[in-house]
Amino acid sequence: MMVEQKVVDPDYLILEAPRERKFITGSQAFAEAIKRANVDIAIAYPITPQSETMHLVGDLWAQGYVKDYYRAEEEYGAMSAIAGAVRGGARAFSATSGPGLLRGLEAIVSWPGHRIPAVLGVMTRVVNAPLSIQPDNVEIAYLLHSGLIVLHAENQQDVFDFTLAGFPISEKVDVYLPVVVATEGFFVTHAKGYVELPPEDMKLPPRDPYKAPVPPTDCEIPPARIQRDAPVQKSNFMSYLIHAVWQQEVWSANERARKWIKHYLGGLIEVVNPKAEVFIVASGCAAAQGREAQRYAEMEGLNVGLVKIKSIRPFPAQELREILKDAKAIIVPEHNIVGWLCKEVKAVIPNGDRVVEGPRVYGGMTLPVELIMDEIYRVLGIKKAKKTLV
Amino acid sequence: MGLEYVKISPGFERYMPRDYVDLVKMGQFGRQVDVMDLGQFKELVEDHPMCAGCYMAYFIRIFYASLPNPEDTIVLGTAGCARLALSQAAVPFIYGNYGDTNAVASGLKRALTIRFPDKHKDVVVIAGDGGLMDIGFGMTMHSWFRREKFTTIMVDNEVYGNTGGQESGMSPKGVQLKMAPKGKQFDKINAVELAKVAGCVYVAKLSPTNPKRIAKVIRRAILAARHFGPTFIHAYTSCNIEYSIPTREVLADARNREKKDFKFYEWMTDEVKEYFEEMEKKEVKA
Ligand SMILES: Cc1ncc(C[n+]2csc(CCOP(=O)(O)OP(=O)(O)O)c2C)c(N)n1
Ligand code: SF4
Ligand SMILES: [Mg+2]
Fold first, then answer.
1. From the candidates A80, A108, A146, A243, which should be mutated to test the interface with B, based on the most B CB atoms within 10 A?
2. Which of B137, B160, B189, B241 to mutate to test the pocket of ligand 1 (most atoms within 8 A of CB)?
3. Most ligand 1 atoms within 8 A of CB, residue of B56, B58, B95, B135 to mutate
4. Domains assigned to chain A
5. What is the pLDDT of residues B77-96, one digit of tens each?
6. What are chain B's domains?
7. ipTM above 0.85, yes or no
8. DSSP conformation letters of B192-220
9. For residues A87 and A228, what is the distance between their CA atoms, to the nearest angstrom?
């Protein structure tokens, strides 16, 4: 069943190899990336809308593409086991959604401090209560202050590219942090889109756990007395200092990921119409809707641009300041009620009153392009009778 | 590699700390020591900040002296008193979040099995009663259900020692502790029976009165885990602080409990029994 795979250079596989177009779901796109990522172990726990991805990854294990796989007891156990596997030198993958993410959070937010290079898929889902399984990406807000690298995929293609590139980015010696690939549940995971895929008979080189700023815990490297855990269990200045320095290093490593995100993913942002008067700034699925709104606006002769943010951590502060320097208004559509992206954008640009707080949909609603168009008309002072766009 | 990694490269002896040189020259790496010789060799753990006279600290000292293969052993601990000593030992130690030991160990052991299919890398969890039977209960049980091949040792002081003496699921019924101002309302959890039902292949319960026997149990638990499946040791390691046991009476208390609810108990599957019988026959011959 398994295709014989040869190891190729990550740069070749990600940037140069010929690609073939397939029409697949976001879940399939995750699995296609894992198939080529030479993953040692994947640990799964079911939750909609993530489950389908980890079913497919389970099939990859059954076929021999992934060396070990199991269904964990729950997300805290799954994410803790990922930490153990990565510290043991393995390349690991897991994925979860909404309540599952929050259940696993204590383990996940300690990965950066443990210097755990791994990739975690996050397929967004409403955080209870009331119960819902629909896409709402408020959970991403909980990931932003822990040192994790957080990429936000707009579509199936991004899911594939971000996940595959996530492994080499995560394992770079000057980074060595976990990479989250978030995308909207259902809208991306359960819908099909075109994805350009490199050949399936190629895979990334295996993880080399000795190319590392902190060694794996495998009893293979000297000396025996030196440990990975800083002695920070005392209430004295030295222990505060050790922890402080460790945190600084985690965030510096997060910063250093910028160049690798640029290298593998072409930048932290993508810009459409850089000379625009009004910009839509969005990430994930909202960027797809923003892209449509930009297209309609252009058809109507309006000077509107799009900034799609691919990397939420590290955050493209410099890039945004530059591109938004002359923008008259900045519209930030989001799939959550708190507006975490809006706050991020406002915090890094001057004259924050240019930022339009929304439109926001939540609870799993779709984000109609009309809502974004209404904001465009409003900031441009155009009075329009409401009309429906396709 | 194993043993190789602890050795000092030629020419570097004089630059390495004395402590490390002694560890390599007079320590346990590459040889089996007898716990009865404690004090005659350089131990894997020496300094630690646990309370003076703490019986858990004593148990941990015996534990390290009993390792069948210290140069290829990884110890996992969690929040709780034990980690204060475990983190000071010359054996790689992993500390994650409170109660996560058996999940982390599952991932670690699997990774080591993938990477070193022809070697024994022993993985041992040592955690408190709160860590294993309360907050980490699900992960403890499921590592056993999944038949993960590592050893779990519960250092049971019948209390949350590290946070200042609160009731745990392993505290005896009726005992008045913090967060149990009217005395504990339910029985001590029967961890040994749970371990057997959940799939451990070797289970022992002891009060640390006999170092030679502790060493044997630890060695057996680790060897059985290598070949057959999860193993569990339930050790009574009193907290002299929270239970107000004067240091000089700690051993007497351990003996007293041994007569009551901590009688030495050892159980194993037939397969494991056969394995030890074979092994012991060979040892006698040698
Ligand atoms: C998630 C989380 N909850 C609570 C704590 C606080 N905590 C630290 S140690 C401990 C109790 C330890 O008791 P036990 O596991 O029995 O070990 P002992 O100290 O008695 O050896 C607790 C509750 C924590 N560190 N993390
Ligand atoms: S609090 Fe109790 S168990 Fe903890 S170190 Fe002190 S005596 Fe030992
Ligand atoms: Mg305890």
1. A80
2. B160
3. B135
4. 6-203 (3.40.50.970), 269-380 (3.40.50.920)
5. 999 999 989 988 889 999 99
6. 49-285 (3.40.50.970)
7. yes
8. HHHHHHHT-SEEEEE-SS-HHHHHHHHHH
9. 10
